[in-house]
Amino acid sequence: MAQIQEYQEYLLDALEVVDFKLIRDKADINNDALIFHPVMAHQIFGETETIFGYQDLHVRVFYTAGPLHIYLGVEYGTRVNEVSAGEMNADDVVGTIAHSLPDGCYFINLDEFLKTLDKADKFQPFGEKIGEYTRPSDDGSERLFEFYQCDYKVPSFLKFFARLQTFILWFVDAASYIDTDDAQWCYFVCYEKYKNGDGQYQYATAGYTTVYEYYAYPQNKRPRISQMMILPPFQKLGLATQLIETIYKYYQSQKNVVDITVEDPSEDFQRLRNFVDARFCKELKSFARNEIVKGFSKEMVREARETLKLNPRQVRKVYELLRLYYTNVNDEKEYRSYRLEVKKRLNAVYYKQIKDLKKMERYKMDTEMLRARLPNMKQRMEQLQEEYAVVEEGYKNTLAKLKA
Ligand SMILES: CC(C)(COP(=O)(O)OP(=O)(O)OC[C@H]1O[C@@H](n2cnc3c(N)ncnc32)[C@H](O)[C@@H]1OP(=O)(O)O)[C@@H](O)C(=O)NCCC(=O)NCCS
What is the pLDDT of residues 127-136, one digit of tens each? Predict the structure, then answer.
């Protein structure tokens, strides 16, 4: 009986052998410069993110660049089935990936897939255009990106979106597909508008954000940004930053929007958001330098909420960021006053716990166990210093961008 250990060289890292490509043209099929790899694969291939049974394996996951039709295929040198005389079976890679895709929305025949490419020049963005953004490309020409908003009322969009959201399993931690039957979802998609080989404009899909529009009494809504994904070939071009700004402007112009929140933001997302919010707030009266040095104020919360729809917690973060922006860290007095301000906020929970304990003790309650769990003053000071260092480090990157 063959042992799996004998076939260690047939155990492959999925992150290395899965090749994604966005296909604009038939020639792209053979252009390896377009390949990008997934960041994670545990939702498809399990915790170890491995594929068993092949040597020299390439798993091809190709999407047409605009409408995102999907091709799945494998190429390999040898397969364990043959070398083990049928005793071992290679993983069914295509079947496993297909399992994570919306029903019937992929091709395993390359020619059939390429037929959809012939019609890709007809592909148009869905919904309403709400913004655009240009940036210079490496060859000096301009790249044009357009942002669209769409909702469940366009059925063909939902089919397209089902293909678009397949990327998140490979690129966003702990991601799951959203339920597109839920009418509260609002979709924002970014496309690149480019000239194809015939000199005609065509669209390529670049990324998206989903926003859940919660109801708020009596006739208001509170949009919550949920997923955001910029496809890897389009990352670091400023698209996420522009997309967030565009979404903000879209909701800021609506009177019945209470505020905009973000669901469980990743570190990357929080950084982008801080930058966008700080850039907006910097222009507000209550965030002017002379106001900021006086400390955090209710007026900041009010103005940022009314004009930018920011929620109070985020306003406080932006205040700290902008205060650091205006603080001369070489002036010990100024810098110290800044640190105290942030530490006061970081320490608020600790002081609340102490206050609660004292209250309980006044009522002669036994607080011994609870007290033992709390750090003593010295430990707390050390913790606080560490917490502060993390906060300041997080702000520094954003400050550099604000100053650029
Ligand atoms: C996180 C994510 C949305 C960012 O998208 P993006 O379009 O690359 O973001 P931006 O280009 O606007 O900004 C990203 C960084 O690139 C920098 N940048 C912007 N233009 C740049 C350029 N031309 N060259 C180099 N860097 C650039 C920005 O300053 C920013 O720097 P920072 O990360 O230090 O703050 C994207 O990486 C992604 O989809 N990741 C996977 C999914 C995910 O994590 N989503 C968020 C949680 S749901």
Answer: 999 999 999 9
Confidence of residue 148 (pLDDT cuts 50, 70, 90): very high
User: By C-alpha distance, which of 53, 64, 1 is closest to 28?
Assistant: 64
Verify whether ligand 1 is closer than 6 Å to residue 394 (CB atom).
no
Q: List, for residues 1-11, the tens digit of each pLDDT value.
A: 556 677 889 99
Q: Which CATH number fits domain 124-264: 2.60.120.200, 1.10.8.80, 3.60.15.10, 3.40.630.30?
A: 3.40.630.30
Nearest-atom number in ligand 1 for the CA of 135 is: 23
User: Strands 50-52 and 11-13: what pairing?
Assistant: antiparallel
Strand pairing partners for 70?
Answer: 63, 106
List residues with catalytic annotation. Answer: 263
Q: Which of 39, 167, 229, 236 to mutate to test the pocket of ligand 1 (most atoms within 8 A of CB)?
A: 236
**Which helix (H) or strand (E) element contains residue 249?**
helix 239-252
- The reported pLDDT for the residue numbered 377 is 81
- Give me the architecture of the 4-120 domain, per CATH: Alpha-Beta Complex (3.90)
What spacing in Å lies between the alpha carbon of 345 and ligand 1's midpoint? 29
Task: Tell me whether residue 237 is annotated as binding.
Answer: yes
> Which residues of the chain are in CATH 3.40.630.30 domains?
124-264
CA of 240 to the centre of ligand 1 (A): 6
Model confidence pLDDT, tens digit, residues 196-229 = 999 999 999 999 999 999 999 999 999 999 999 9
How far from 277 is each of 16, 90, 226, 255, CA to CA, in Å? 37, 50, 17, 19
Class of the 277-404 domain? mainly alpha
Our answer on whether the CB atom of 244 is closer than 6 Å to any ligand 1 atom is no
